[in-house]
Amino acid sequence: MTVVREPLWDDAPRTKMQGVVRHLASFVSTLGFAAHLLTESVAFFPSVLCRRQSRAELVNQLYITGIRTLPVVTVVSLFTGMILALQVGLELRRFNQEIYLGAAVMISLIREMGPFSCGMCLAACVGSSIAAELGTMKVNDEVAALEIMSISPVRFLASPRILALVLMAPLLGFFCCVVGTMGGGIVGVTQLGVYFEQYMASALSVAETKDLFVGLLKSLMFGVIIGTVAVEEGFSTALGATGVGRSTQRSVIVSFLLILMFGYMITRVCYQ
Amino acid sequence: MSAKKKDVFSEFIVGLFMIAVLGLLVYFTIVISGVDVLQGRQKVVARVLFTDVGGLKDHDNVMYRGTKVGTVERVNLSPTNLVVEMEINKDVVLRESCRIAVCNLSMLGGNYLLLEEGEGEILPLETTLFTGETPTDWMQDVSKIAKDIRNLTSGGELKGIVTNIEVASGKVLAIADRVERGEGTLGKLLSSDDSLYVEVADTVTEVKGTFANANKIVERVEKGEGTVGKLLSSDDTVYRDLQRTLASAGDIADKINRGEGVLGRLVSKDDPLGKELDDAVAAFRKACESVDAKDVIASAEKLLANLNDVAEKLKTGDGTLGKLINETELYDEIQGLAKDVRQTLDNFRDTTPISTFGSLIMGGL
Amino acid sequence: MSLIAFENVVKKFNGFPVLDGLSFSMEKGEVMALVGPSGTGKSVTLKHLVRLLTPTSGRVVVDGVDVASCSDRELEKIRSRVGYLFQGGALLAWMTVAENVALPLRECTNLSQHEIDEKVAAALAAVELTAAAEKYPAEISGGMQKRAGLARAIVRESDIVLYDEPTSGLDPVTSVTINTLIRKLNRTLGITSLVVTHDLSGALAIADRILLIKNGKAVECSTPAEFVKSTNPDAREFLAAMKGETI
Fold this sequence. Notes:
The complex is a heterotrimer. Chain A is mainly α. Chain A has one domain (20-270). Chain A contains nine helices and no strands. Chain A has helices at 16-50, 52-67, 70-94, 101-139, 142-148, 153-191, 196-206, 209-235, 240-270. In chain A, helix 6 (153-191) crosses helix 8 (209-235). The mean pLDDT of chain A is 88. Chain B is an alpha/beta fold. Chain B has three domains: 39-136; 139-187 and 261-365, no CATH class; 193-258. Chain B has 14 helices and seven strands. In chain B, helix 3 (138-154) packs parallel to helix 4, helix 10 runs parallel beside helix 13 and helix 11 runs antiparallel to helix 13 (329-350). In chain B, 19% of the residues are buried. Chain C has a single domain, classed as Rossmann fold (3-Layer(aba) Sandwich), CATH 3.40.50. Helix content of chain C is 41%, strand content 24%. In chain C, strand 7, helix 6 and strand 8 (192-196) form a beta-alpha-beta unit. In chain C, helix 4 packs across helix 5 (142-155). Chain A binds chain C through residues 2, 4, 6-7, 9-12, 53, 137, 140-142, 144-151, 156, and chain C through 11-15, 47, 50-54, 56, 72, 76, 79-80, 82, 84, 86-88, 90-93, 103-104, 106-108, 149, 152, 156.
């Protein structure tokens, strides 16, 4: 597929109506472009893993995605867990049921908040940086140069980034759950007077394999969404530095929206 | 068509496809329940007449043989009563004596509509107007129970029990008082001390001797031997014996006062038995203030009755006195009883959920 | 048959015609300089040759193939024959200059590492960048970036090279070197070159023909000798402006 695109229409819209129709049509074809990008990136996954240079690039992307985001992810998930524990704990205390604090925190983290907060961090840290990087490359004609050299930008740029996100998102999602649970434990012990052993026992008693897998599936989906959106926005960048800024912003917004929507849908599908 | 247009066209189609898929996903996950559509169950609307639905709402579940078969569609208010429209699986079978009731989902609220098949002819679901039972209001029931408990604690039965305890402990105290005052026989008899026993035996022998002497004197008087003045002055043994007997009795009373022997212990303020009894009564009172289970009250009553019995027996002295003299069995028994009362109360506390909800209700009242 | 042919190409952006009926053709082994004021569609013309842009109407033909409507396979073939020097160099920021130059060889050929190294060294030597081989694009000047881009455009030994402003922003000495290089590549390897430039003296020195574009149309197409003597008012205007600039 060609990544460097020119505007769909050479002439200006004659009527307002035509402008609206064109807007809709370009929205639809952007969706198709994103889907095309994703499928082609996935098709290039084996080639990314096979080629030495691509592997090096993949490792680099894994580092950027997984390791460089760790501080942010840690703080975000820690506080997510702490907030959850505090809110739930205060309610539970009204009924003298603080012993169930661990369970409540664990369930909400593993099912929803872990993947969700991880997705938000990745969209904000990694997705935006991918969109900005690819956008800059696009406006500097680097993407066009790659295309002219018969180097597929999808294989060379998109595929390693999406693969890195797909691999790292579930890991980070799980990491979020663990750190969040610890954060909840800290609040439980210091603010709500729950014994840590009691908290952990309660937390582990409710942690089911299904919840974990659904959580990991969610994280994976979020990784795919963030990667695809960021790459699509990056490759669609036009109009210089302003365009790069707009792509970055759009990639974060669209990722957030899709994460929320898909989070709900996956929950709905998995927990009838 | 140019290559550019071809690309864009294919992507446009893919985009349309994605929108369609996403639209379906949204429809299945947000608008309707996916299961119903996937399994293709056919639903019918049945109507049920109620006089009161006890908070049943739209979309509440309809349960049949323990499984969900549909939902409440609408609760229509008619001039005289309510008509509930429920959308249920067409395979549900309801017969002439079927029962339809609104049930509580949990202690914390929520309702569902329960269908029971019943006996007799099968009724057509769509055309029959079923009649539903008026639901029992769980919260109302609970508040009634709670009110009863409050009555118990403020006047009624429980007060009687507490009074019983007071009476019983009063009786015990009275006995102890009497013992402390050294009231003759009981003071002497109620000692576990061997030496005291021997002493008592001695005393009794001496008293016997004294009485024997007295008898002799009476005999002598009866026989007309000597004179009364002679009787009083010729022999001072009787006088000395009497004096010794009185001294011994004083000794026994002293021992009781010093806390020796069962009654001594009962009387003594710093003895663990007395304290334990006090504790038990206090704990029981405290429990009675926050507790609602009738069987506990009953068992407590029984215990108190036993205590009363014991006190009664102590008072009458039948059978028990021998034990009191020989060993500390009664002491142990009383101690055991006190322990029992405490354990019962502890067991009672362990049933946390009940007490939690009890306190919850109490808090709410 | 000519190697490259533009046939009445019209290209509109948002209704505004940037190319408005551009027609010209180039023979194999020819060096053509594309000159004209800014914003007249010189870069746009180059982009049409590799289908970075497609014409609103008209045809762009490369070696008998209509670039705009050919299959992806044919396009791939055309692109593999074309070296393209972008205005900014378009180097990948996370690779050194040498890696950038080696990229098309490494990704699209089966050459051994040794052969690649040799070719890269030769290309870098040709643009006088051997010293900066291990530097990153951000660490070298704009002119050096452009030369590195040029090295990457020629390293594959394509038979068509498109130069988008190869000498702008370079000092006069390096400009002469680059111009000489373009000429030399053409003479020794027979590379067909289309050079978009503002540098009239350079264009006059290297080009077989000079094409003047104004308002999206070819207004003058002639050899350097004819071009300077042209009576076309647009050409005269352009020449006058250029002379004023150089003085």
